[in-house]
Write a structure and sequence with these properties.
alpha/beta; about 290 residues; single chain; binds NADP nicotinamide-adenine-dinucleotide phosphate
Length: about 290
């Protein structure tokens, strides 16, 4: 019980601020590949509910995930507690046109069983940024979305975006970021800081098993984890949110994984921990093309 209270208390305090002043806990929940297998549904719902109980209110989904099945699962999870959640969904670039964006958004709203989406993201860059921004602004004016952002945009794409009419209303950019993929630290992360626009880190656990295996090769990482009485993967997650300018959205099905992920918010990495981590997973020394899954 004490463990859960400590986590809740920490997540209440460890927040970051969106450009419109909205404060969000630095850890949320991903849902890619969830809602697709009926035998896993109960466990997935329990995981999402547990995450909400602990304060991981940001729940990320997309019309693409399982062709709407992830949105349906999320809708069910938040049905009786909509106000506690901050729902993020994403639109396909080929739906982000004047002709199609409203229909795509209505589909997401229906599957999510809600009449507003807290944050609506362009899943990846499409052809006409100006047209997409105009459509997103229209959805905002209609109250169907409260704010919008983008995903998988590199620095040059972001620069182009903010020069579009209303392009500076963008709330965030959701990109791949974990210990094994630090490229954004060279330019995108600092650029977003100058705009006071937080990064949302997807696959912050490096999709689980792959990063677990990489971490297991390094006794220094094991020692850091032992010192903090946690698992190496929790150290990796704590590392993504270390500076307070990144909101990470790990995906977990099992309840214990959800709790471990939320617990990562309670880990304070020391300067020495950080130096050792840098020596194993070095910072980028030059511009790297944006990593995308
Ligand atoms: P991830 O969160 O890095 O890793 C998920 C994997 O890690 C799952 O296999 C999960 O297993 C496992 N895991 C979770 N917690 C764990 C723990 N405490 N210990 C051991 N294993 C653990 O990968 P992701 O799902 O790719 O990324 C997270 C979210 O980001 C997605 O779900 C999605 O919402 C979003 N995303 C966005 C984009 C985009 O283009 N914008 C792309 C990729 C992902 P269990 O499920 O069995 O617990």
């Amino acid at each position: 019980m004490e463990r859960m209270e400590t986590i809740k208390d920490t997540l209440r305090k460890r927040t970051l601020t969106l450009p419109d002043g909205t404060r969000l806990p630095v850890l949320g929940q991903g849902t890619w590949k969830m809602g697709e297998i009926s035998g896993k549904r109960e466990a997935e719902l329990e995981g999402l509910q547990t995450g909400l109980d602990l304060g991981m209110k940001v729940i990320d989904t997309a019309e693409m995930y399982g062709d709407g099945q992830s949105e349906q699962l999320v809708g069910e999870a938040v049905k009786h507690r909509r106000e506690e959640a901050f729902l993020v969904s994403k639109v396909y670039p080929h739906h982000a046109t004047s002709a199609n964006i409203e229909e795509a958004c209505d589909g997401s709203l229906k599957r999510l069983q809600t009449d507003y989406i807290d944050l609506y993201l362009l899943h990846w860059r499409g052809r006409d940024l100006a047209e997409t921004v105009e459509g997103l602004e229209r959805l905002k004016q209609a109250g169907k979305i409260l704010r919008w952002g983008v995903s998988n945009f590199d620095t040059s794409d972001m620069e182009e975006l903010v020069h579009q009419k209303d392009g500076n209303h963008c709330a965030t950019n959701q990109v791949l970021y974990h210990l094994g993929s630090r490229g954004i630290e060279f330019d995108l992360l600092p650029w977003q800081q100058t705009q006071q626009m937080p990064i949302m880190a997807y696959s912050p656990l490096g999709q689980g098993e792959t990063l677990v295996k990489k971490l297991a090769k390094h006794t220094a990482i094991q020692k850091i984890a032992e010192k903090h009485h946690v698992k190496p993967l929790q150290i990796a997650l704590a590392w993504t949110i270390r500076e307070g300018n990144v909101l990470a959205i790990p995906k977990a099905t099992s309840k214990e994984h959800v709790i471990e992920n939320a617990e990562a918010s309670t880990i304070e990495l020391s300067l020495d921990d950080m130096k050792q981590i840098d020596s194993i997973f070095p910072k980028p020394a030059r511009k790297m093309p944006l990593d995308i899954i």
